[in-house]
Amino acid sequence: MVLALNSLAPDFSAETTEGPIRLHDWIGDSWCVLFSHPKDFTPVCTTELGAMARMKPEFDRRSVKLIGLSVDPVDTHRSWSEDIAETQGTAPNYPMIGDPDLKIAKLYGMLPEDTEGGAEGRTAMDNATARTVFVIGPDKRIKLMITYPMTTGRDFGEILRAIDSMQLTARHKVATPANWRQGDDVIIVPAVSDDEARQKFPNGWEAPKPYLRLVPQPT
Fold it and tell me: Among 84, 110, 161, 199, which is 20 to 30 Å from 122 by CA?
C-alpha cells in the first residue's frame, strides 16, 4: 500500500504489551504517534523507546497517544522492556505492537507486500525500512511521515515541534515558517484574502512580500 499525507491511516487489530487493540478505536478523538522498529534488542531503538517514555508527559499534554511497533512478538517486547528500563532509566509506558507476521509493516508500506514469512529468522537489516514515524490526526488521517536510517536516532523533540505546528494550523488559517517554535510569528495562508485577513487579524501584519504575511501566533 502506498501511503501519502492525508491518506486514511490503515486500521488494524493487533496484540500489544497492554492487550489487544483496534487502532482507530484506540486513537479515539486524540492525535497519535505510531513509530516503528525493525527488531527488538537493537541499540538505537533501545535509546529511542526510553526517550519516548521520558517525554510521554509532553505528548499527553497535547492529547497525543504514543504507540510503538516492532517486528517481533509481544513476549519479546516485554523482555526488551527490562533492558530499556535498565539502560535508559524507564521502560516504555505506552503500548508496543507485536508484528511477528509482518502484517502491519506491509500494510503501512514499510516492507514490500510480497515479503514472505514472518519475523523469525529475519535480521534488523532485513527490516531496515521499518523505521518510520507516523503522526495520525483525530480524523484518522496521516499528517506526517518521517523515515530514518537505522544508524540515526530519532529527534522526538522535532516530532513535538511538528505536532505543535499541526495542531495550531488545524485551528487557525496560518502556516508556520522554517524553524518555528511556540510563540514565534506565523504566516497567513495564501487562501486567506487580505479582506478576510483584516477581519481575522485586526492588528495587521508585516508583509515583506505580498505572498508572505507574518502575524503573531494566534491563541
Answer: 84
Q: How many domains does the chain have?
A: 2
Distance CA 46, CA 40 (A): 8
C-alpha cell of residue 217:
501566533
pTM of the full predicted structure?
0.95
Q: Which domain holds residue 25?
A: 13-154
Annotated catalytic residue 45: yes
120 and 67 inside one domain: yes
Helix 74-88 vs helix 43-61: crossing angle, to nearest 10: 80
Binned at pLDDT 50, 70 and 90, residue 2 comes out as: confident
Phi/psi of residue 52, each to 5°? -65, -40
- Give the residue, 92 or 2, on which the prediction is more confident: 92
Q: Taken in order 211, 212, 214, 219, is the CA torsion positive or negative?
A: positive
